[in-house]
């Protein structure tokens, strides 16, 4: 057999083997995906009390094609490919907490649990688990805690509704960078601090019912107490730490620069402090109070390193 015939034979054999491996790979991936989706749905059913019995049809006794696509509140890509794209269970009187098992519904586009009695916190890794979400509606529940900054990782979000819950803390700045977000509301919570969106992004209705929010479409200026927005009310220790940080920053920044310039004694040093001295005297001269004349201090420092300051009236 010639070399060319051998090559043709091997190529033909290879062309027969490759599709088989591809088919096996696709089947195995499909089986794993189906198992994950079933694990996700089982976790949701176990986590929520269901007085209306809407989840009773969620039975997974076998893995026949299209099984999970036939249960209520669930949508798939199609009847052949068992990949979840939507779990929609609004107004079902569900109670309980959002389970960690939802991470196995990794292909979800839509998660709608609005107008139930779901409590607890929003999972901090929700958008790590479900990165392809385009709709997240958790409004009308009893969710508490802070809005996770991780929601800023759901880059495909078009709709984010968190209104009418018990959420507190700030609106994460990460949400303002979501490129496709067009439907957003956090109304009727207990949120505080500046709104990270500009005034034209969303209407004020999206933020009403949060007495602590300011800026953005609300039009209100953020008051001087905003640096303490992360402190609990009447938390004196927290506020003391904020004040201490401000004072320490001033000391390090201003006096650090002062002593560096004093040691280096560059040529422009004298002119600079002479100008500062003149401006300061102009402001406080009318009060006839004792002042510290830095210009004299500098000249005396040049003449005698042991003389630093001169007080004059």
TrEMBL record:
Residues 35-77 form the Leucine-rich repeat-containing N-terminal plant-type domain. Gene3D superfamilies: Ribonuclease Inhibitor. The keyword Cytoplasm does not apply. One of its GO terms (cellular component) is membrane. Keywords: Leucine-rich repeat, Membrane, Repeat, Signal, Transmembrane, Transmembrane helix. InterPro entries: Leu-rich_rpt, LRR-RLK, LRR_dom_sf, LRR_N_plant-typ. It is found in: Membrane. It holds the Pfam family LRR_1. It comes from the Eukaryota. The chain crosses the membrane at residues 12-34, 240-263, 269-287. The keyword Signal applies. SUPFAM superfamilies: L domain-like. This is Leucine-rich repeat-containing N-terminal plant-type domain-containing protein. The lineage of its organism: Eukaryota, Viridiplantae, Streptophyta, Embryophyta, Tracheophyta.
């Amino acid at each position: 057999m010639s070399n060319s015939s051998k090559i043709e034979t091997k190529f033909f054999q290879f062309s027969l083997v490759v599709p088989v491996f591809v088919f096996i790979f696709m089947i195995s991936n499909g089986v794993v995906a189906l198992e994950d989706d079933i694990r996700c749905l089982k976790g949701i059913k176990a986590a929520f009390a269901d007085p209306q019995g809407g989840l009773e049809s969620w039975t997974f006794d076998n893995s026949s094609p299209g099984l999970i696509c036939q249960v209520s509140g669930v949508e798939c890509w199609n009847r052949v490919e068992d990949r979840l794209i939507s779990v929609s269970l609004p107004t079902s009187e569900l109670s309980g907490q959002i389970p960690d098992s939802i991470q196995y519904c990794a292909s979800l586009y839509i998660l709608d649990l609005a107008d139930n009695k779901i409590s607890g916190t929003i999972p901090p890794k929700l958008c790590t688990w479900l990165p392809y979400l385009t709709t997240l509606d958790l409004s009308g529940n009893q969710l508490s805690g802070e809005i996770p900054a991780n929601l800023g990782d759901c880059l495909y979000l078009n709709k984010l509704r968190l209104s009418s819950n018990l959420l507190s803390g700030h609106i994460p700045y990460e949400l303002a960078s979501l490129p496709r977000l067009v439907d957003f509301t956090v109304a009727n919570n207990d949120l505080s601090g500046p709104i990270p969106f500009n005034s034209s992004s969303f209407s004020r209705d999206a933020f009403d019912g949060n007495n602590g929010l300011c800026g953005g479409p609300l039009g209100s200026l953020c008051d001087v107490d905003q640096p303490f927005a992360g402190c609990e009310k009447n938390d004196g220790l927290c506020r003391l730490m904020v004040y201490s940080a401000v004072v320490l920053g001033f000391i390090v920044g201003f006096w650090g620069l002062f002593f560096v310039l004093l040691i280096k004694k560059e040529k422009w040093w004298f002119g600079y402090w002479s100008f500062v001295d003149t401006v300061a005297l102009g402001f406080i001269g009318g009060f006839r109070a004792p002042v510290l004349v830095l210009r004299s201090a500098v000249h005396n420092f040049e003449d005698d390193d042991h003389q630093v300051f001169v007080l004059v009236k």
